[in-house]
Amino acid sequence: MNDKSRLESGGDAAIVTRFAPSPTGRLHPGHALSAILAHDFSRARGGTFLLRIEDIDGARSRPEHVAAILDDLRWLGLHWDGPVLYQSQRLGLYEDALDRLRGAGLLYPCFCTRADIAREIAASGSAPHGMGEVYPGICRDLAEAQRTRRIVAGEPHAWRIDMAAAVERAGELVWRDCEGMDHRADPLAHGDVVLARKDAPASYHLAVTVDDAARHISHVIRGVDLLPFTDIHRLLQALLGLPTPVYCHHALLTDESGQRLAKRHGAPTLEALRRAGVEGHAFADDLRAGRMPVGIGAAKG
Ligand code: GLU
């Protein structure tokens, strides 16, 4: 359905949701829940549902995972609007956003290895942090001449945001959830996160923020495990002058004992369920109804 016919049919063309899997492995039941919720939210309102493949991580993304994801979604009975979007084809957009942030003096090159960072954190004896380890700022105060010399010499580097400077620039930041509640974003808690990786032209945070805005996503529907990152996405929206969608973070799937149903706990992939003959529509309906889906336990993989 195009925007015009959707409007004529009384739907809300302003509602746009997306499912944005990373093709670094097969999908699991938790992914299916995110996809179903995003799909159904949009369909119930006559909106648009997009599929975006987050494949900027060239080393870990695989075409065979993409093919399986498309088959899994069809098996669940989910249909997306328009072409599948691939982040790997949109690198210029991320580069433009990086240039703007760099031009505003908010990024710096970071030459640290994981070992450098771990050593510095151990030496400082800092207590573990709720957000995981926060970058200790080793490269933040390098002299400009030294930065240039190391870049020109071809030393591998990431680009980090100077979080304190960025937060000062952006001021107070708020985002709204599906219930209409406002939340204050706290990007400082994450420290100087990476926006362009050594091995990838953009980080998840930058690409997701730029793409959600470019595709006019009105409601971001995703698992609560990604909730903390909304702090960072909200900050980037403010710095880049992008609109803020409504955020809906759903609870993660758990088994009977309340354990998160994740791949490391042996939950089957959707592909394994498909191959075991589980009926996709029934599986999706169980997830919609909040029931433990048919077939879990019937297949391993
Ligand atoms: N690509 C991310 C993932 O698979 C999800 C991105 C998002 O929904 O913001 O975890």
From TrEMBL:
Q: Name one GO biological process term.
A: glutamyl-tRNA aminoacylation
- One Pfam match, by short name? tRNA-synt_1c
InterPro entries found in the cross-reference section: Glu/Gln-tRNA-synth, Glu/Gln-tRNA-synth_Ib_cat-dom, GluQ/Sye, Rossmann-like_a/b/a_fold
Q: Which UniProt keywords apply?
A: Aminoacyl-tRNA synthetase, ATP-binding, Ligase, Metal-binding, Nucleotide-binding, Protein biosynthesis, Zinc
Give an example GO cellular component term for this record.
cytosol
Give, as one word, the top-level EC class.
ligase
Which SUPFAM superfamilies does the record match to this protein? Nucleotidylyl transferase
As one GO molecular function, the record gives: ATP binding
Domain Glutamyl/glutaminyl-tRNA synthetase class Ib catalytic intervals: 15-269
Q: Does the keyword Aminoacyl-tRNA synthetase apply?
A: yes
EC number assigned by the record:
6.1.1.-
Family label: Belongs to the class-I aminoacyl-tRNA synthetase family.
The record, for PANTHER family, names:
GLUTAMATE--TRNA LIGASE, GLUTAMYL-Q TRNA(ASP) SYNTHETASE
Q: What is this protein called?
A: Glutamyl-Q tRNA(Asp) synthetase
